[in-house]
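TEACHING EXERCISE
Course module: macromolecular assemblies
Task: Read the component lines below, then compare them to the predicted structure of the full complex.
Student: A.B.
Group: 4
Components provided:
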Amino acid sequence: MKLYWTPASPFTRKVVVTARELGLWDRIEIAPTVWPLDWGYATVQFTEGLAEANPVARIPTLITDGGAALGDSTLICQHLNEIAAGESVIPDGAARWNMWSLYAVADGLLEAQIAIRAEMLRPEAMRSEGFLDKQRDRIARCFDHIESCAEELDGPLNLAQITVGIACGYQDWRDWLGDFRPGHGRLSRWYDAFSERPAMLETEPKETPAT
Amino acid sequence: MKLYWTPASPFTRKVVVTARELGLWDRIEIAPTVWPLDWGYATVQFTEGLAEANPVARIPTLITDGGAALGDSTLICQHLNEIAAGESVIPDGAARWNMWSLYAVADGLLEAQIAIRAEMLRPEAMRSEGFLDKQRDRIARCFDHIESCAEELDGPLNLAQITVGIACGYQDWRDWLGDFRPGHGRLSRWYDAFSERPAMLETEPKETPAT
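Instructor-supplied answer key:
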């Protein structure tokens, strides 16, 4: 398999942590991508092969062993879970849809974080404080929700835990996002332990290299 | 089940068409939502119950019979497919990941269409022509890709077909999006027939009612 990647993308990190936890990491070839800082408001020059494989031209994009290009991190994680031997990060039965419910909240939180990043990269005159506030409000609602059901983060590893952990990690990495901990004691204690997993320590976010 | 809904959202239409095609439509209660026109760059007053059910506060959100709130249209369609008796819009085996590959392109196309909508609702001074061009370029690449593999749209109904059909329908509905037909003859002929399905005719997009 081949993964179009950057260490700055939380959606890509979700795929990488999932692959590592499922024991699939050594089956994936990494294709590093480059993103000029105007990526949010211009059609930039894409890393060779990316737009040809996936015309949405976004990361993560995974090329499966069967040759399918998957340009959506949820679908990529589902694919990895299907091909993993003996391991799973998607529970069976009724627990599955509760897991996906929490997953979708954490994924929406990641989207809001990235929307702020893209907005702040715009020239200042075209930046909307209202848009930034809308995303900050969304992030606050999502963290409050996760705190209110933090007991769901216990138990066997699953994709909701991975996505919540990555959202916490992104919030810590970007200094223009606030500290998620105040008022969220159960989540904070959970993240203290979760962030020590080898798959999390080995994938800490970094800026995309310039070339 | 309960679905937070508006007739203007193509992601919501994807869920509705899927539910209708799977014979599940009469099991879903519709909760209409209202969206002031500054939804793209302000925290608006949400329709009662929406943000409480799903703190991302987006539509579509489905409350399952088991009480899980699903705030992601892909996950909602997967849930509906799982509970449908005898019908399926997700193929088995290797064909599945090729279907998801095309689905993700069409879904990225929908995201670009909605990103243009949100940008055009901004006050003009904060609007970015570069951002609009980036999304238009993405839409053009996606339609070119779909045309190049239009033969994949044949065969039994699946979620990729539904999503491509809705992308074509949204492109037709919004006069600030161009005609997708020039240079895309195979897709155009496919859509002529697909758009006549009852589930498509019964869900043609309309503006969100003001109240």
